[in-house]
Amino acid sequence: MPTSRKPAPADTAVAAAPRPDLLDRLAVQTAIRNGAQLLRRLRTIEHADGPWLEIGGRRLLSFCSNDYLGLAQHPQLVAALKRVADGEGVGSTSAHLICGHRAAHAALEEALAAWTGRERALLFSTGYMANLGVLQALLARGDVCVQDKLNHACLLDGAQLAGAALKRYPHADVAAAARQLAGSGEAGALLATDGVFSMDGDSAPLRELAALCAHQGATFMVDDAHGLGVLGERGAGSVNAAGLTQHEVPVLMATLGKALGCAGAFVAGPAALIDGLIQFARPYVYTTAMPPALAAAALAAVQLAQAEDWRRDRLSVLISRFRSGAAQLGLPLLPSTSAIQPLLIGAADAALRIAHALEQRGFLVSAIRPPTVPQGQARLRITLSASHREDQLDQLLEALGAAVAQ
Ligand SMILES: *Cc1c(COP(=O)(O)O)cnc(C)c1O
Q1: Residue 43: which residues within 8 A CB-CB, separation 6 or more?
Q2: pTM of the entire structure?
Q3: Is residue 92 among the annotated active site residues?
């Protein structure tokens, strides 16, 4: 039987309204960014061997990874990953709530909760998703989310996605945060801050912010992506270092991809928070669980990070050595005592030029430019790791002295 064709809808005959071509528009935006010398470039690392990276057939000493404790290539992490991959394969095969939640995930969550002194912990596939998930689960339209201006992009995105009113206070300005909270009437309020700021390396005034939240009845959230493993007793992080309890900081988020040398993230806090996230955090519910072998590797990393204080000791020796060496050379240090030691350059093209000069001398250092940092505040983001040697640091300082002076 011939199928009867539906008549074409009437409006296909009418000329469509002119629209922008979306791919063309994107190409124009990319060209504008290129013209402003702000194009981001993707580079392929051919091989990684501790802090040594091979790019374009050249070996460069990297000072830009977030592998602060030097765990990313540790044999115990690799062995744990292989053991679980040998036993269970690679993929978790589904979301946590279907059949993706394995023993390796559960063991890691328990270890993270114990380490950070929280009742429970919940794994997310990335830190970006963890922050989107927490903010979207906690905040509703009409609520206010108060944040430090220099918070990581995903905290800012999370508040916007949740439909809350986002208020950003000047960096570390507790009085300004207090005014924003006081001005928000009876709205539900969350104050979120990075523990250690990713592009500046300084620490948030956590104790003052916690007191403010207690006074204002606001919920306090700390993103400790750069503090966990590095600060606090046995590396328990910024919140531990500040002596704050779960009651004072009920929402603690941190990642597994920085000092722990793996990938993924978690949120830790009271059972009621975790139970609610399992129900309502869409980036938790609707995504594939991280590979169980990766969870096993992260558990090995947590154990090493807790046990091996010498990694933090080494890092602090390197940090002091870098700061005193850079100060002697008159380099533009920022007030950071963490593994993130940026040098503030100012103009984006100057930062790029210095990064190129360093690369000529065998060092990989990233030039961070707007919009990642504010206009006029381009910088070299130098990161130190327990895997660096002191003589390597001295060589970097010598190269920096030459490159910045040029
Ligand atoms: C890296 C980072 C994130 C994102 O974590 P990923 O696991 O890399 O997605 C979130 N917050 C801060 C402060 C970070 O530095």
Answers
A1: 55
A2: 0.94
A3: no
